[in-house]
Cytochrome P450 81E8
Amino acid sequence: MDDILFYTSLTLIFILFTFKFLVQPNRRGYKNLPPSPPSLPILGHLHLLRPPVHRTFHRLSQKYGPVFSLWFGSRRVVIVSSPSAVQECFTKNDIVLANRPRSLMSMHVGYNNTTMAGSPYGDHWRNLRRIGVTEIFSTARLQTFSGIRKDEVKHLLLKLSQNARDGFAKVELKSMFNELTFNIIMTMVAGKRYYGDDVSVDKEEAKQFRQIMSDAFFYGGAANPADFLPILNWVGSGGYEKKVKTLAKRTDVFLQGLIDEHRRKGKNGTTMIDHLLSLQESQPEYYNDQIIKGLILVMLLAGTDTSAVTLEWALSNLLNNPHVLKKAKAELDAQLGQENLVDEPDLSKLPYLQSIISETLRLCPAAPLLVPHLSSEDCIIGGFDVPRDTMVLINAWALHRDPEVWDDPEASCLRGLKVVIIFPTNSCRLDLEEGLALG
């Protein structure tokens, strides 16, 4: 028995070290890799990733520097927390870092990495970007849906007033903000409201859609260990990949149903699906059904939760800073009066409110870690060698607290500074403007 235990232990140690030195790429050929904490065989640094992960990365950056590396299983990851290094990523290395790492969600739910969010750099990505800029996110296109946004805000205000008709009442705003953003997006996309007591579709259809979205955010909200340790997909029959495949099938059937429904109705519709189907007739190779489904999916996953979370943080910060709330109310009263609702064109007359939005985005970014990038070639970031096929993560939460930019970065004060918005290619800084968020 002792001999069996000895040889079993010896075999396990051999396997671990084999994985460490053969499966994980080594340092040969790279003279100056980013610093890294000690790692474990097979796991790498996965054991260090305690939530909230962006705060963990920030603590590690204070010890190892603004550019450091970790191992997520067999995947090398570089975390960037320096404004100068981020600028280097998206100017000097913008094309090299234009790709996304593959994941089970982007493979199965994201139509084999062909959506706007997951497509590798190339002709297909350029086509999707062109569609996004000219047909979906243009100022003119968004302006055509301004009435939808106004109506949904009125729905929210009416619901709040009904809750408080007997005096002050406690309300749970998180769910209301989620309903607001989802209804805005889906009314723009398909002309349907799926959330709230007065949905415009069959209750079973609304329930199905809400469950799909809930599952999509659950499985796609954070990187799953199965993406970095494929062996986990071989263990058990109810693995992560199996669940993601099931979600992908349900999602595709639902989105295809929306497209087919609008196709049957004809050309008189005013929704985004109707517009894309009209373009499909003249340019079928650029607007096939899979591309349209991918565009809808990206709008839902990227434009709903982020907007709802930002609204939630903004209200939380205002309630915890009553002097700021008082100044904001005074500005609204002075510029618009007490009888008028705020409309989108009014924002240009409300600089203090714009500063509140900017400070909310700085202190409480809805995506503390930006969507991961993947290096297609060897490159240099912050003076360090970054090998090909390295995942690069930008810690936006840490960037917004850089003491070299803000004297007291943790203070929730209104400096009126412009927010830095990071994009994957062709630009590094954009001032906050109207229309960046669909919600």
Remarks:
- The chain has 17 helices and six strands.
- The CA atoms of residues 61 and 68 lie 7 Å apart.
- The first helix runs from residue 2 to 23.
- Confidence is low (pLDDT under 50) at residues 16-23, 415-439.
